[in-house]
Amino acid sequence: MNLVRGIGRLLLGGFFIVQGAKAVKDPDQFAPAAEPIADQFVPFARKTLPPEASAYVPEDPATLVRLNGALSVLGGLGMATGLGRRGGAYLAAASMVPHVLASNAKGGSLEEKHTARGLQLRNLALLGAALVVSQDTAGQPSMLWRANDSRKRLAHEAERTAEMVARRTGNTGKALAKDVRHFKRQTQLQSRLALKNLEAALP
């Protein structure tokens, strides 16, 4: 594991762990800021989710703060420990969305607006950092890249085989080469379909 990458994830994950723990332990201090978001989120969630799931959406802002804090802790632990770092980064990024929305102050004095703007920029930076970690493959090619590379290599080898057979066997080889090219096209099609299914399955 790259030392700098590991330290960076540890520092970023530590922030999410500490902030999330504060929200879980004492949600009331964050509830007033979360109340406007809760007023918009709860009706939207209840309309979007199935009836059996929407009944479990809490209305209390303090409960929502506690749930978001738990999300932040889980995400921070994933990043800091490296166990499920990419999934943890997605959780951490999701936990930052309410903070970004809450820091978008539209009223108050000029000084309060400057403070809110600085807080929003910090929250946006943390959201961006978590999204970057979510794409971190630790220096290794991603599964999608490997699948796409295998598809290209297979198509290239099929083309080379067809050309070699055509050169060595004349007319008979040309017919065989045609069959090989047809096989190549079918292989490419199946590979593209498999790659699309893989992209849809990955977060």
Summarize the structure.
Helices cover 83% and strands 0% of the residues. It is built from seven helices and no strands.
Q: What's the arrangement of secondary structure elements?
A:
Elements: H1 3-25, H2 31-48, H3 51-54, H4 61-81, H5 85-102, H6 110-134, H7 143-201
Helix pairs in contact: 1-4, 2-4, 2-5, 4-5, 5-6
Query: Main sheet, how many strands, which sense, barrel?
Result: none
Outline: elongated
Record field, number of beta strands = 0
- Low-pLDDT windows of residues: none
- What is the H-and-E element order? HHHHHHH
Radius of gyration: 26 Å
Helix content: over 70%
Category from helices, strands and their pairing: mainly alpha
So how many helices? 7
Kindly estimate the percentage of residues that lie in beta strands according to DSSP.
under 5%
What report would you give on this structure?
By secondary structure, this protein is mostly helical. α5 runs antiparallel to α6. The two termini are 23 Å apart.
Structural features:
elongated; 7 helices; 0% strand; single chain; 203 residues
